[in-house]
Write a structure and sequence with these properties.
Number of domains: 1
Number of strands: 7
Oligomer: single chain
Largest sheet: 7 strands, mixed
CATH class: Alpha Beta
CATH architecture: 3-Layer(aba) Sandwich
Order of helices and strands: HEHEHEHEHEHEEH
Radius of gyration: 17 Å
Shape: globular
Helix content: 40-55%
CATH superfamily: Glycerol-3-phosphate (1)-acyltransferase
Number of helices: 7
Strand order of the largest sheet: 1-7-6-2-5-3-4
Strand content: 15-25%
Length: 214
């Protein structure tokens, strides 16, 4: 019974609540040309953002039915996966802790078919605001560009969880920001991968700070 409620009853309720909540929000986009590229440019791509910035980004890009979202196979991930489907995302289950290989292989197959994959930069457990290898390795293997996305909100509530997730309050202003695409050479060695992780961390922190200051 509990599983039925979590998988079938709760997701549409959350979908409706999130819709009503976000309809009250005012949106400012710092670089509309990059948003247009993310929404309209054909071909494979990896989109990534901090775990703390999931809430509004998932809503903002809802209903396009072209994004494949990598979601942890945990119980919390079950809820996110089911809600994500209501918002029009296609779901791939996997993480850096569970079912790593099946999830990675499916993402690689999708990218090689020119699909678009969404992956959390700092994973499902952190460390906080430090990019993991996932998106960098996918870009190396498939040649897909990495697009870093973020937002900030005023006013907002910041949770005390490991990721310090933020929730825009009703009638708040959300500022969205995107970095230019980042590429990873196909012959990148371990040191280059580490450098690219640092580069992605820097990009995400930079555009997040720009949102907070706008």
């Amino acid at each position: 019974m509990k599983s039925f409620l979590l998988n079938n009853i709760l997701p549409p309720i959350l979908w409706a609540v999130i819709h009503l909540w976000c309809k009250t929000i005012r949106v400012k986009i710092l670089n509309p040309e990059m948003e247009k590229e993310i929404r309209e440019k054909p071909g494979r791509a990896v989109y990534t953002f901090w775990h703390s910035r999931q809430f509004y980004i998932f809503y903002h890009f809802r209903g396009l039915h072209k994004y494949h979202m990598l979601v942890s196979p945990s119980k919390d991930g079950d809820i996110l996966a089911n809600v994500g489907k209501w918002f029009g995302y296609k779901v791939v289950r996997g993480s850096s802790f569970k079912r790593t290989l099946p999830g990675t292989r499916e993402c690689i197959d999708l990218l090689n078919k020119d699909a678009k994959v969404v992956i959390i930069a700092d994973g499902s457990r952190g460390p906080y605001h430090l990019a993991q290898q996932g998106s960098v390795q996918l870009a190396r293997i498939t040649g897909a560009p990495i697009y870093a996305l973020t937002y900030d909100a005023h006013p907002k509530h910041e949770f005390s969880s490991w990721d310090r997730s933020i929730l825009p309050l009703p009638f708040s202003k959300v500022t969205l920001n995107y970095a230019p695409p980042m590429t990873v050479p196909p012959d990148a060695d371990k040191e280059t991968i580490r450098q690219k992780q640092d580069e992605l961390t820097g990009l995400l922190n930079k555009i997040t700070q720009e949102c907070a200051q706008s």
